Amino acid sequence: MSTFAVPVGRLHALSGELRKVPAFVRRDFLTAWSYRMSFVSDMVNMTGQVVVFYFIGLMIDPDVLPTYGGSDVTYLEFAAVGIAVGVFIQFGLNRVSAAMRGEQLMGTLESVLVTPTTPTTIQLGSVAWDLVYIPLRTAIFLTAVTVAFGLNLSAAGLIPALLVLIVFMPFVWGLGVATAALLLTFKRGAGFVGLGFVALGLMSGVYFPLDLLPGWLAAVAEANPVAHAIEAMRDSLLGDATLASVLPVVLLLIPCSAVSLAFGMGLFRLSVRRERRRGSMGLY
Amino acid sequence: MAAVLAPELDRARDLTKPSRPTLEPAIRVESLVHQFDEKVVLDSVSLDVAPGSIHALLGPNGAGKTTLLRILSGLLVPRHGNVRVLGRNVDNSREFRGLIGLVPSGDRSFYLRISGLENLVFFARLYGATKRDAVRRAHELLEQVGLEDAAKVRVGFYSHGMQKRLSVARALLADPPILLVDEATHDLDPEGARRVRDLVADAASRRTAVVWATQRLDEIRGLCDGVTLIAEGKVAFLGSVPELMAHAVPRRYLVRLRSSRPVATTAVGALGTIAPSGEPHSGHYLLALREDAVLGDALGALAAGGVDVLTCTEERSEIEQAFLSIAGGRK
Fold first, then answer.
1. Which burial class, exposed, middle or buried, applies to A63 when counting CB atoms under 10 A from its CB (0-12, 13-18, 19+)?
2. CB B205: neighbour CB atoms within 10 A?
3. Chain A within 8 Å of B95 (Cβ-Cβ)?
4. Is B98 near chain A, with CB under 8 Å?
């Protein structure tokens, strides 16, 4: 047995792996910064989407919308939080899966995999920049909408909303990693992402209250963690919900996130193992 | 060289130092078989590579060289056979991967939107170096491969040769005990190729075991200690470079004569044939010897016939002839 094998404890190995994550963040920041125009177009797109919903909101009677904290909300307020979370999910799913696909297309995947870095670190590292950027982007979006259209978002609800977002993030990440595994295996399959988002979006209450769904679909939506996350976010930001009042949702989301993450990571490991066996890691 | 790596990787390098007796080769491949679907690409391949030696992997396109390197680097799991690196089986563990430096054959293995320096720093950190050490090591290697002036230029603006040199620099980041090089000098200018060979030879002098897959046959003379020639997935030759060259039996020479062809043809007589080579009246000819003739006799006959022989070179290098003799003989 070589003295090289597992020379130090697992804790040391873990900390060594975690120390690599900032290198991924720097790499992806520099890459993103080299495409400055995409920052601008991203913000323009988001602004355009909000303007559209503002005008749609003018046609919608607030009485058909649910109340939060006993107060009526406008459609724009209702949709803005939904869109923020929805875009967060879409962006998260796309970016996580695109990270691996991008490495494959650039030809860098094998170069990274040949280094003494675990697949989990590579996955975490590949999305670390997004884990910083996406919440920041969501916050910028909500702030801009609030300032531009005078939305009545609760400052006190920011902390509970942030807590919900944090426990919800691994759920999205797990789905993204699972998608990345499928893309690694099947090479083409962006449709998986779109299909998943449509299913999640339809039954999540991003754009409309779930009460409007047919009974059986509403029942399915009840089991959708995304719907719970969005409602908790609305409760926090539109209804002044406290940490205690979002706690049940947080407790529900934690196991969902754990399962999603474990599923995604497991699938990714299987996918890498399969590609090593077939020798098709670098193919696309 | 100062250590810049995680402690466990430094310990890995210790395994190759002379103070520690080496019981088996740095790389041992035994009866390796691999196939993609039904196509067998490696068939019972065996070879040993000692620490500090450079082992050439020769073979025509599609012979299986890259597949073998991918197996040795852990990127591909072989169907059958044993592959041991520094006494341990090849696996996908981070400890194993810390032993390997790989120069891939393809062009696309860097982040094109960031600089060469940033690329190297990134990869050095994946090998466990701290940021400060990663930057220092990246600068060291950029200087060694002659890219210090392009350190802050995006890799997307690098030429093919520059990317190759950067690729060699990356493989040497961790000063690995095993270095796998796939067509590193392919398409490089002579100076760039020489620089890459010097870097690899320098690594071997520090007891790194190198597997050097190449199509540039002449470069293995003076560089490589051993040669494996793979043809159609099988080992067609395994031995030293001089042993390989022993397979070369040159029979065709490019000569430059101060005489006309009929005179030269008469002078050579039954020893061989003389045919024009290159521009007419330039004095360049191809001398093809008969099976039993030797070069000295032919040159003597030309001189005796009043033909001045100005130059005489083999039409192909000895290694190329040996390669063609062995690889061609399998077809």
1. exposed
2. 9
3. yes
4. yes
Instruction: Name the residue in chain B with its Cα closest to that of A7.
Output: B8
CB contact under 8 A, A118 and B94: yes
Which of B4, B8, B65 would best serve as a mutation to test chain A binding (most A beta carbons within 10 A)?
Answer: B8
Name the minimum distance, in Å, from the CA of B190 to any CA of chain A: 26
The one-letter amino acid code at A46 reads M
| Closest partner CB to B123 (pick from A106, A115, A282) | A115
CA atoms within 13 A on the CB side of A24: 25
Mutation target among B122, B160, B164, B179 for the A interface, most CBs of A within 10 A: B122
Compute the distance between CA of residue B68 and CA of residue B73 in angstroms, rounded to an integer.
9
**Hey, is the C-beta of A279 within 8 angstroms of any chain B C-beta?**
yes
The sign of the CA dihedral A204, A205, A207, A213 is positive
Cβ atoms of B32 and B81 within 8 Å: the answer is yes
Instruction: Give alpha helix (H) positions in B23-114.
Output: 65-72, 94-97
Chain A residues touching B134 at Cβ < 8 A: 23
pLDDT tens track for B40-72: 899 999 999 999 999 999 988 888 899 999 999
Nearest to B115, CA basis, from B80, B166, B68, B77: B166
Say whether B88 and A23 touch across the interface (CB within 8 A). Answer: no
| Locus of tokens 């191809």 | B286
- Is B137 in the A-facing interface, judged by CB distances under 8 Å? no
> Do A91 and A175 touch, CB atoms closer than 8 A?
no
Q: Is the ipTM here above 0.85?
A: no
All residues of chain A having their beta carbon less than 8 Å from the beta carbon of residue B8 are 4, 7-8
Q: Cβ A114–B88 below 8 Å, yes or no?
A: no
List CB contacts of B9: < 8 A, sequence separation 6 or more. Answer: A116, B98, B127, B128, B174
Cα A67 to Cα A73, A149, A209, B150: the distances in Å are 6, 19, 11, 61
Q: How far is CA A49 from CA A80, A89, A147, B38, in A?
A: 10, 16, 16, 53
Q: What is the mean pLDDT of each run of 10 residues along chain A (284 residues)?
A: 42 84 94 84 79 83 81 84 79 75 80 88 84 80 81 83 89 85 73 65 79 82 87 88 90 94 88 78 60
In sequence order, what are the beta bridge partners of B285? B255, B276
Phi-psi sector, B269: left (phi>0), alpha (psi -120 to 50), beta: left
Cβ separation of A8 and B88 shorter than 8 Å?
Answer: no
How far, in Å, CA of A152 to CA of A78, rounded?
Answer: 11
Give the count of beta carbons closer than 10 Å to the beta carbon of residue B301.
19
By the CB < 8 Å criterion, does A4 face chain B?
yes
Provide the Cα torsion B214, B217, B223, B227; round to 10°.
Answer: 70
Q: Do B49 and B63 touch, CB atoms closer than 8 A?
A: no
